[in-house]
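Changelog entry

Holo records now carry the ligand SMILES as an explicit input line rather than a separate metadata file. Below, a converted record for fe (ii) ion, shown in the new format.
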Amino acid sequence: MRYRPEPAPADAPAPSGTGVLLCNLGTPEAPTTPAVRRYLAQFLGDPRIVEAPRALWLPVLHGWVLRTRPARSAAKYRTVWTEQGSPLLAWSKKQASLLRGYLHEADLRVAVRHAMCYGQPAIAQELDALKAQGCARILVLPLYPQYSATTTASVHDAVFAWGRTVRSLPELRLAGAFHAHAGYVAALAGRIRQHWQAHGRPDVLLLSFHGLPQRMADLGDPYPQQCHETARLLAQALGLREGQYVTTFQSRFGRAKWLQPYTAPTLARLGQAGTGRVDVACPGFVSDCLETLEEIAEDARDTFLHAGGREFHYIPALNDDPDWIRALVSLVQQHLQGWPAA
Ligand SMILES: C=CC1=C(C)c2cc3[nH]c(cc4nc(cc5[nH]c(cc1n2)c(C)c5CCC(=O)O)C(CCC(=O)O)=C4C)c(C)c3C=C
Ligand SMILES: [Fe+2]
Ligand SMILES: [Fe+2]
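Structure line, unchanged by the conversion:
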């Protein structure tokens, strides 16, 4: 059946509630080669992520990337895996649970769930769950502060795909970027200031954002501008002058040109130039994950220290920071305006 049947009206009261779905990228179910292969197949098979013509990309993906990368990536995932599983999933779950608690404290009766764009819990499954909980209105909030067609729009795509299977659709709102949201920037600044109160100040603060192919930026993806705007606002909130901070892009994939400057070569250059201490924060990641815990806190640290740097501090992502959860509450309230939420 093209559109799924709804429960008979006698079996279910008319939906009247409001729900929020927090969405992040996704992560493998386990740090094993087969699980990482399944995850990467879905992730890198999404044309939002790799835009190359399917006839060229799919043979490379299945014939080369999915044969070689999963074992290497699984080994990396094992270095960050916790008792709660993938850090990205564990933090997303905690953020949803804290947001639910804060909203209820504020007397807002809103159902809150979390979902992943690739892997589990899937966006479609969690939208079904919110609907089954009686939500007549759903706000979808991608947890990417900076909009990119690769990330924010891929969450939106998943919502549209789900919508095409549903007979009685709830009202839907899709949130976009929050790169300049005052509460988000203040939470980032607070996190960095706290680190400095405990450990002193660095010579340079490096703000590392996930990279993007330069071609996507050239085609109009607003991501790089939004990263630079977040960095500028954050530096302003911290009272930093030019030269005291640098903005870079990490996680390059493949051989094409990505946004520059790249994080690792910048750290190598800073180390070689005699910079004693560097602190690194990753404002684009609201949750610690493979890209921050392994690529930055492990690999980038080695790069800087081997290049001659003396001290490297990774400042953790916002995770369960109370100021960040309050910023999430304010973002949600902003997007729920006009909807009954009590
Ligand atoms: C073409 C490849 C990729 C694009 C474009 C891309 C954009 C992009 N990604 C994030 C956030 C995250 N990416 C993460 C992991 C990750 N990213 C890529 C590739 C691209 N990302 C790969 C292949 C991987 C998997 C790991 C690996 O094999 O190296 C993660 C972490 C996931 C986790 O489980 O912890 C996040 C988060 C953004 C914000 C972004 C565009 C701006
Ligand atoms: Fe990525
Ligand atoms: Fe990476």
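Spot-checked after migration. The first helix runs from residue 33 to 44. The longest strand covers residues 17-26.
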